[in-house]
Amino acid sequence: MSNSQIAQIFSQMADLMEIKGEDRFRINAYRTAARAIADLGEDVADVAARNELLKIPGVGKGTAAKIIEFLREGKIGVHQELLEQYPPGLRQLLEIRGLGPRKVETLYRELNVASIADLRACIADGRLQRLKGFGEKTAKVILEGLEFLEQAGQRTPLGIAAPIAAELRDAVSRFPGAGRVEIAGSLRRGRDTVADLDMVCEAADGKPIIEQFTRLGPVAQILAAGETKASVLVDRPDGAGQIQCDLRVVPSESFGAALQYFTGSKEHNIRLREIAVKRGWLLNEYGLFKGETRLAGHDEAGIYAKLGFPFIPPELRENRGEIEADGHVPDLLEYGDIRGELHAHTTASDGRLTIEEMVEAARERGYQYLAITDHSRSSVIAGGLSAEDVLRHAAEIRALNARLKDFTLLAGAECDILPDGSLDYPDEVLAQLDWVVASIHASQHLDRDTQTRRSIAALENPYVCVLGHPSGRLLGRRDAMDLDWDLIIKTAARTGTALEINASWQRLDLNDHHVRMATEAGCWLSINTDAHSAADMDQMSYGVQTARRGWARKARVLNTFTAARLQKWIAAKRAR
Ligand code: DGT
Ligand code: CA
Ligand code: CA
Ligand code: ZN
Known about the structure:
It is a single chain. This protein is of the alpha/beta class and 576 residues long. Helix content is 44%, strand content 15%. It has four domains: 2-152, DNA polymerase beta, N-terminal domain-like (DNA polymerase, domain 1), CATH 1.10.150; 156-249, Beta Polymerase, domain 2 (2-Layer Sandwich); 251-329, Beta Polymerase, domain 3 (2-Layer Sandwich), CATH 3.30.210.10; 335-575, Metal-dependent hydrolases (TIM Barrel), CATH 3.20.20.140. The strands form four sheets. Strands 11-12-13-14-15-16-17 form a seven-stranded parallel sheet.
């Protein structure tokens, strides 16, 4: 489809025309048309073929002619002319708060500033400050804008964003006049990182909601506040800058449509709109319409139902086959299916709680079993246990287990996979444990072949139940290891060794793509929080969301089993 290309060209033209100082009316026409075409439910070429471009709301005579020009020539003349006058990099400068199109034009004309690097250089040596109409104050505002832009490029991890969002949602829910309030956007879809937070609030009158929202304690700065929407910045509790939160207030009859629209993903929404258009309907953030008649909009389920789908869980809404599957993924894992934790540390290595305290924490979360998996000897900094110590520790765990009613403790270990692929404990030690997680904790920068062979050697070991945090990534801090995923997943499927979905928000490893591959290959999975404290166990929901994003089936996730069934699984694995 040419839709996205044309939309991009139009918005680039609008930006460059703005710098050139052209007529506002024409600039807005391009922006409106760009949006309309990006949101179109069908290929714009088909619309043009039917001679119906002018029927698209937001497309006028001028923009329709440009669309036809693009479809015929593959480019648009005035766009090419603009590109000759101004380098495309200038557009980036428009994104800096405190630097409007007039100033961008002046800087380009007078100082030849065509990029952020040029801009920084001109501020550093004072050329910008000496320019007429600029000065120290402007320079300071621009520098602040630059800093914000750089920080805004950063995505916030799910585990940082989710508690902030929950706090804001609860606060908004308490406002007088507020009805339903929901988090939307990538956070609702359970992505491992989010660019910003999106929230939808049901209320008859937007203004008082927006006013109260912008006055909330956590709000550090108001970026925009209107009658029905606001954007604010909230400080991240980890001190790593701020995150933006967009709130939209909508009337009751549009709440479901707005929640659906702002949950996204954009790609999923485009597919839904196509389906609506094929029936001669219109789907947007206000509702699903047939002409003037509202078919749905009050709630999300109603929209999906009218379009012929079951409720599609937000985690699936990525246009990765959920539309073709009619929104139905068989046996999709649910949070309530989780019955235990299979990767946890105690004071024996680097955990903060004793075995008893960890049992308590697991029971509080309604679990039926817990595997204690402290570190092995090579993880020296984490207080890894020698072979002797791990067996003594196992005896202690079993003694406690014998005293527990209605709860099962597994005596295990998180055993390091050494650089040569051998394990940190010999097989005769591993054979005396109930449960073994094998993980790579050091030498993560070996070449792809060596690294892959290491993981595969661990998967081949009959005593290894699960490969821990298989990619080794730490979000925003350490890249994933270079691995041959096809081979690793094939080996896991063949050997019957489970792959971990480490639910800790710093890891979320496997990620959603790898879960999908593993699910398609028929691998076993285990969703583990790798808990070092009681609170860590609450990250299970992030792992479950990641699993759902990868279409994981309940039947393939080990910690949905009963304790008895898990024991059988372990015995069968060892007997293979
Ligand atoms: P991110 O980047 O982590 O914030 O991801 P999202 O998905 O939260 O993206 P965001 O915040 O830009 O927009 C929220 C939702 O609003 C998005 O998932 C779908 C919808 N949306 C935003 N812009 C557009 C658009 O231009 N066209 C369509 N169809 N939907 C859009
Ligand atoms: Ca967002
Ligand atoms: Ca947003
Ligand atoms: Zn661990």
